[in-house]
Amino acid sequence: MSAADLAGLRAAAETYAWGADRRDKAAWRAVMTDDVEIVGPGFAITGLEANLGSIDHLAHAFVATRHVVHDIDAVIDGDTARGETRSTAEHRIAGTDGTDTLLVWAIRYQDTWRRDGAEWRFARRELVVDWEELRTVRNVGGGA
């Protein structure tokens, strides 16, 4: 695999993460195929427009999120790549008593990318949660 291809796969994963955190549908649109399928614990969503609706769910369910891409292993075969993207996702849940909770997932995405011109896009992502952790959050400087 070339360094350019690995950089392209990573750029897609980081744009996906950034788009989730910023609730930016245009970012997701840039890194997903029209027929993308995203599967996870208890859900399977097919199609770009349907998956863009997940951004609305994130905005409704969580005060904020932070997705961090750690590393990627992939094999490229022509214009298709398959691999695993390891990430951490933090989901801030508003509390009713003034204390928020952070739901943290250790994730292994099982990814299939498709090359579209010079860009890599997700054709399929399967979200595998290895473990989750709950933490109490307190504000220390202003941001949600």
Descriptive account of the structure:
- It is built from three helices and six strands, in the order ααββαββββ.
- It has 144 residues and is α+β, with helices and mostly antiparallel strands.
- The chain has a single domain (3-137), classed as Nuclear Transport Factor 2, Chain: A, CATH 3.10.450.
- Helix 1 runs antiparallel to helix 2 (25-31).
- The chain is globular.
- The chain starts with a helix and ends in a 7-residue tail after the last strand.
- The model has no long low-confidence stretch (mean pLDDT 94).
Relevant terms:
Nuclear Transport Factor 2, Chain: A; six-stranded mixed sheet; 3 helices; 144 residues; globular; alpha+beta
What is this structure's SSE topology?
Blueprint (H helix, E strand, L loop, with lengths): L2 H20 L2 H7 E9 L2 E4 L1 H14 L2 E14 L2 E14 L6 E17 L2 E19 L7
Parallel strand pairs: 1-6
Antiparallel strand pairs: 1-2, 3-4, 4-5, 5-6
What's the short version?
The protein has 144 residues and is of the alpha+beta class. It has helices spanning 3-22, 25-31, 48-61; strands spanning 32-40, 43-46, 64-77, 80-93, 100-116, 119-137. Helix content is 28%, strand content 53%.
